[in-house]
Amino acid sequence: MNSDSETILHVCDICQKSFKRRYYLNRHIDAVHENQKVFRCSYCNFQTSRKDALDRHVNQIHITSRVHKCKKCGETFKQIGNLYRHTNTVHTTEKRFQCKDCFSSFSRKDNLERHIKKFHTSTISEEY
């Protein structure tokens, strides 16, 4: 078995991206450079070059039911991560992200970033 330093890389001639396996290189070329989208969703117009991407799309968008239920309000979600985000945003009083310009507080970092862009674009600093 080769160590990581001895791993043979397969490099794309077009963009120089490297892959550990030739299969991944070929899949990359088909998807990115030849734009082959041979897998089509039977429910909508979604197309992709990878079967695993089609399977994930169908499961997340068309088939998976909303199985993750919020214990506080009953709202349901397809993905557990969305339930966690909902719980931490809607049902928490903790606001860990504070604006250094006006001291507004937010429960999520992306909401703080959106606030800064909207209200403090001329004062953005490296502190955030």
What does this structure look like?
The structure is a single chain. This protein is an alpha+beta fold. Among the domains are: about 5-35, Classic Zinc Finger (Double Stranded RNA Binding Domain); about 95-128, 2-Layer Sandwich (Double Stranded RNA Binding Domain). The protein has helices at about 20-35, 50-65, 80-90, 110-120, and strands spanning about 10, 20, 40, 45-50, 70, 75, 95-100, 105. A hairpin with a 6-residue loop joins strand 1 (about 10) and strand 2 (about 20). The protein is extended, with a radius of gyration of 22 Å. The mean pLDDT is about 85.
What is the tally of helical segments?
A: 4
Residue share in β-strands: 5-15%
Q: Name the strands of the widest sheet in spatial order.
A: 1-2
Instruction: Decide which structural class fits the backbone.
Output: alpha+beta
Detail the topology: elements first, then pairings.
Elements: E1 10-11, E2 18-19, H1 22-33, E3 39-40, E4 47-48, H2 51-63, E5 68-69, E6 76-77, H3 80-90, E7 97-98, E8 105-106, H4 109-119
Antiparallel strand pairs: 1-2, 3-4, 5-6, 7-8
In short:
The chain is an alpha+beta fold and 128 residues long. Among the domains are: 4-33, Classic Zinc Finger (Double Stranded RNA Binding Domain, 2-Layer Sandwich); 95-128, Double Stranded RNA Binding Domain.
